[in-house]
# Entry
Amino acid sequence: PAGQKKSDDNLSTEIVLNSNDTMKFDKNIILVEAGKLITLTLNHNGKFSKRGMGHNFVLLKAGIDVADFALRAARSYSSDYIPEGDETITYTKLLGGGESDTIKFVAPKKGFYTYICSFPGHWQLMKGKLIVK
# Structure
């Protein structure tokens, strides 16, 4: 019947996260279940280019120093503000106004994980918690 989820839908979760030219995500808490396949779509609903007001979604591993990561990210222009290292769980492409990117990843173990936009100067306003239950 219409509206009913297939049984395999219980294994996955779809999330849409919107961003704009005022440096905000429309969600600062995302709740998921450990081990589920997450399909996350980031939309940049603003008008500015990715070089002027780019946005991404960067999910950090537990225990990462966010300020330190963001400082190194700001110097990582050539890699769209993703510094070298093994500190991320996943991330989207850097988007300009009107663009979207969809990523898939398996939710990590139970806990609290920080997500940010790693574009220079954005992380203090554009951040949130992925809560895995």
User: Anything to note?
Assistant: The helical segments are 50-53, 66-74. Confidence is low (pLDDT under 50) at residues 1-7.
